[in-house]
């Protein structure tokens, strides 16, 4: 009924067996039901014969499997990226902790009587960097991870 080779069908079968999430199995089953493919159901699960599936249903299943595999790869890459960034942030924090603290001059009573103009006091404007897009998500994920 379909024009795929046996190797292709075996590859599809292996990929389906490697699914880890019940929602993924449910989606494949919904594709089978949409296409009115014959299946059997018993205590071990739902079974169907790949050779009897119409080309359109098989293509939907293959597209869905490709979607799943692509998302897994992207997720894995992102986890590695977040891990690297988290490690870099930890190194920066450790470096900051190692820096020497400058002693603060104690104000004596004679110093308080002097007229201090605003021009002699430096103003420290500490502005946090504003992250946008992907960096914003990465920094947010790191902060959430560090709170745990």
**Mean pLDDT across all residues, rounded?**
78
Largest sheet: 2 strands, antiparallel
Number of extended strands: 2
Instruction: Give the N-terminus to C-terminus distance in angstroms.
Output: 53 Å
What overall geometry do the principal axes of the alpha carbons give? elongated
Low-confidence stretches: none
Brief write-up:
The chain has 148 residues and is mainly α. The mean pLDDT is 78.
Structural notes for this entry:
This protein has 148 residues and is mainly alpha-helical. It has 5 helices and 2 strands; from the N terminus they run H-H-E-E-H-H-H. The protein has a two-stranded antiparallel ribbon with strand order 1-2. Helix 2 packs antiparallel against helix 3 and helix 3 crosses helix 5. The two termini are 53 Å apart. The mean pLDDT is 78.
Per-chain topology:
Layout lengths: L5 H12 L4 H13 L5 E3 L2 E3 L7 H44 L10 H4 L20 H15 L1
Antiparallel strand pairs: 1-2
